[in-house]
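Two records follow; treat each independently.
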Amino acid sequence: MLYWLFENVLSQIYSPFSAVSSLTLRALLAVMTALGFCLLFGSRTIDYLRSVKYGQAIRDDGPKSHLAKTGTPTMGGVLILSAIGVATLFWADLPNRYVWILLFVMGFFGGVGWADDWLKIKHKDPKGLVARKKYFWLSVGALVAGGSMYFIATQQADVATTRAMQDLLIPVFKDFYIPFSAVPFGLAFIIFTYFVINGSSNAVNLTDGLDGLAILPVVLVASGLGAFAYVSGDVRFAEYLHVPYIAYYSEVTVVGDSIVGAVVGFLWFNAHPAQVFMGDVGALALGGMLGTMAVMTRQEIAFAIMGGLFVAEAVSVMLQVGSYKLRKKRIFLMAPLHHHFEELGWKETQVVTRFWIIAIILVVLALMTLKLR
């Protein structure tokens, strides 16, 4: 909205306002808008959540040290999503269909998370929404997003562009890719997209188990995917770095930077000891958006590298559950992985800081693949 105002009205009155058309400037403005929104409304949101007794229910089978967190306001993810929405609507080029797909994923996955959080609060039970219902609705959201992206790809006049928007790129290799576009009706693309978005959403949700733990990795991954989107939308960078050039991918950068600003602002209140938790409403939505951004930029494998911490957390749960069902034995002292290290004697702040360091290393490695082609 503000972008349209500057571009079409204010720039005609005062020419320097035309600088807002710069993608880089709009991305920075999105960061500052989302950050400012969270800092401005953060305390008020926490006070409201506390007044209506939206307190976190803590599982009694988790680390005993976490029982002291019972009653900490949750559903703070509403603040994050509001900040992302405001910053995106202000500074993104709204006719861009990718912007609206990301906003749809944010709203839909956030809605499922909200229902899960609400049931936990209402029944004072940490189990929340029945697993099969939760998975069903997340699957609906992922399939709609995947189908929408496939539809956009098929509308391209250039066959090469249509293929580039579907085929799976392999990092490091310049001209090697998996031809999803060869499978009729976009089945390979849509199914793969479904797993990426759904897997990412659940992985971020599993990681969000300690104060601030998921925050910095989300910031780093959103920044990394924003960089990939920026490169893909600039013909010079795309040609130099051997990535597909899709002009309207670049607008994803604004949404990614909105995520960065909102999540950094939320960290102010979520740092140990946390004043508020984002809950499933935030974690599921953020994870879904990151997975969707990865698909849009065709950097799913690079996303798995930079989001390796999320992958490790999800895999630890799958291994733990599978091992216990098959052998009646546990692999980890407790899952997800961060609880395992807590049980080994690491303090919560040690786990968070060390996991953050790992996340930084993984994002740097993923960004290096841009040049290693």
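The next record belongs to a different protein.
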Amino acid sequence: MASKTDILMIDPMPESFNEQLGTPFRLHQFTSVETLGTLAERIEGVTTGGGSGLPRPIMDRLPNLKIISVNGVGIDKIDLDECRRRNIRLATAQGVLTEDVADMAIG
């Protein structure tokens, strides 16, 4: 049986999200760079919010990072040059809430 992929969660997510992702992945809530220890080498994915992004000191500690998933559209707090250099994929929720945000603005 294949082992689960380790995912680092920068921001807390709703419990329903954790339950869904917890089946195919092993989730780890981020607390500090200092406490990553040997876990850092196992992390292949990061979930984060647009406001938090992925600070470079955290990114630098994750040598096997393959993907960053942003719960939102903000990518200004993610080092895109470093993502390109390391071939790290980046996923956002672009377009998901466009109509809802427009409706709220009009309202």
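Discussion point: The mean pLDDT is 91. How would you locate this feature using only the token line?
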